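pasting for ref
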Amino acid sequence: MNNTHLLPLSFSLQPSAFPLIAAFIRRDFLTERSYRLSFALGALATLANLAVFYFIGKLFGGSLAAELEPYGSGYFAYVFTAQAFFGYIGTGAGSYAGRLRLEQTQGTLEAALSTPLGILPFLAALSAWNFIFATFELLVYALAGIFIFKLDFSAANWPAASLVFLLSAACFAALGILSSCFVVLFKRGNPLAWVLNNFEGLLGGVYFPVAVLPGWLLAVSNLLPVTYAVRAFQLAVHRGAGLSQLKDDLLILLIFDLVLLPASAWLFSLSVKRARRTGTLGEY
């Protein structure tokens, strides 16, 4: 394939890009719809996972661990909120690399890159369905929390939680774009995805507050954006914390966004250019 017809390395989002993005969404929806059993099993796995944490919370009874006191919630309410939140923002971290790898193995990456999209529209098209589906999953989480597990979110400050949500989703989308650079360049072997998959939840306060970590691990945790995202979201939802109380975490998330978003788009552009130059774009 003539590489001059491949993805234009621009970052603008033109109105003409929207029909192409919609076409990507339609294709991905039709693919997802053809695997109904997989969807059902995934939903059951989610409920089973929640049940595990629910009964762990029952084991603790009504006692509130010292590490949970700042959030004013029991263990299950804490981990339920963190998992629902992390599950959504984690879509950005995992979708780009995963979708690029799928396009590679199916032999459709060069065809996808031949569409007249720029860098940002292409990345938006690649992950749009993942975010739509993640939004549906988040709604299911919310309904399960309210009607099945009887969680109380009446104290939540939803405007503040929404701001945390947006800043965090943007940050994790940038991390996902950085991760996809390894897929473009090396096909297999993605150290950033390995770190995100294995350590973000463990060290970022998703399964337990980071206060339980030893000092040296806490220092590592403080380098991760997920730590600030989860803490701010938990405080906004369970304590009703406002912007003045969350300002430090919000500022750190904003700094991550300002650095990572342009850097990730630029590095992805460089990765595609290099793969074009070496003729390895269609390899897998």
